[in-house]
Amino acid sequence: MFLCAQEKGLPVPNISRSALCLLGLLTLCTATDRPARAAATDTALADQLAAASGHYAADTNLFGAGPLSIVLKQELGAQYDSFVQNMQVAGPLQPVGDILFMTGNRQHAGADSIAWLLVDRTGHNMTVGILNPGHLSLYGFGPTPITKPRDVRTMLENMQNVPPFCNPPQNLQPGAQIQLQATLHHGATCVYRLGLHKGEKVTARLDAKPGNAVLRLIDPRLVQNSDAQAWLVLHDDLYLLQVEPGPDGQAEQPFTLTVKAD
What we know:
The structure is a single chain. The chain is of the alpha+beta class. The chain has 2 domains: 16-159, no CATH class; 165-262, Sandwich (Jelly Rolls). It is 27% helix and 33% strand. It has 6 helices and 14 strands. It is globular.
């Protein structure tokens, strides 16, 4: 406290001023310590991923302890338990270039309840998918969206055309256009699977009664957090577009989705 006062050329401070100086010192220590702790956490996560590469989750307690489980619990919240359950029967954490991935399904549930994890080797960028009957949850964090490895893309392409999926996978070549029509039922969503190609400029238009339905590109997410309906395809990938109820959505919500690639 005395040092804090001396820096300003002040006499020995009173109690209230001392308390403020102490608070300032504590705040400074806390702020300057954050980067060091963040760097340590990043290093620990990268080390854990490196050690787990090629192994099953149970062999390394991948989701039970360590920095990855901490990150997933923070990001997934209440969905973390569903993610772990859908990884009960899973393959190993497989390396593909700079990416590690794992896919799994809930025991005795087959393809009805599945999950997948995509993460770069540093742990900075991550995608988590959780699919349960009628509902798909996707979480992406980090500055760079991750392109799905072939095995993950094939898994999603082979899923039956049952809710929440509203179309068989369709490949959109440059110059092509597709038009999809459906009706949203109360509380439901429609997820469309479209194979897009690097360099394509894609526009998507949703025609529906204003406020009744909303279109979102949910995977791979756009670099900018935006609901823009036009984007440039950076890598070949299976894109997932979701039509969901809008703020004024009624029980029955007919719509038309038009997607064009140039």
